[in-house]
Amino acid sequence: MTSDTTQTEAVTAETGNETEELRNLIADAHVVLWDFDGPICRLFAGHSAERVANELVRWLEGQGLHGLLTGSERQSLDPHVVLRAVDRRHPGSDLVTELEARLTEEERRAVPSAQPTPYADPLIRTWKALGSRLAITTNNSPLVVREYLDGRDLGDCFAPHVYGRTRDLEPLKPDPHCLNRALSATGTAPGRALMIGDTPTDHEASLRAGVRFLGYARNARKEKLLREAGATVVVDSLEPVLRILRGLGVPPVQA
Predict the structure, then answer these.
(1) pTM value > 0.85
(2) Which of 2, 32, 27 is nearest to 194 (CA)?
(3) Exposed/middle/buried for 39, CB within 10 Å: 0-12, 13-18, 19+?
(4) What is the pLDDT of residues 185-217, one digit of tens each?
């Protein structure tokens, strides 16, 4: 039987190791690739993603395409699941183009009620002050990302490096296409970059691109999914990231 003292020492050691690994990830990052919905904000905080997914399903049914989706796809809470399912069956079709445009419009409607992720704004500004280059690598529409960033006066921190969904849906994450675009555009070797993401597809994309990964999990369910996907460093708040970064000698930047 393990004593309480031994258990406490083991937990402390594990936490200390992860903190040191986090510090190394941050210190070595010359380019930081951010997923958008999750690490930077909750895009659908006030504009339900479930409702958007249901709207896309109803629109398909209105076109007489009820049988195009499986039962689980029709019940998905994620509009991207619906979009990708249709693209798999009708790649590059006018139907996919229309569905993608509808999703983009719903994302744009969500921007005014999007909830900023705690500590994300000052972290972005501080990382920029450190001299690191920042890029967005997301499955959301780049138009939507720019609208949100400009509304928070963060656009200049990333411009022009916003890489998001296009009408060609094949290279969405977990394909590393958007990460590779960011690396190429910034002239950065994969080993000098860090990606911050909140989903297993983000983690897989980073692995395939050869980029180190920092997981952000706002709840236990998301952390479990990231851990099961193989993510070794996961934070439930961006505060320790900001604290470590400021400890590297950068003057504090206000939100």
Answers:
(1) yes
(2) 32
(3) buried
(4) 999 999 999 999 999 999 999 999 999 999 999
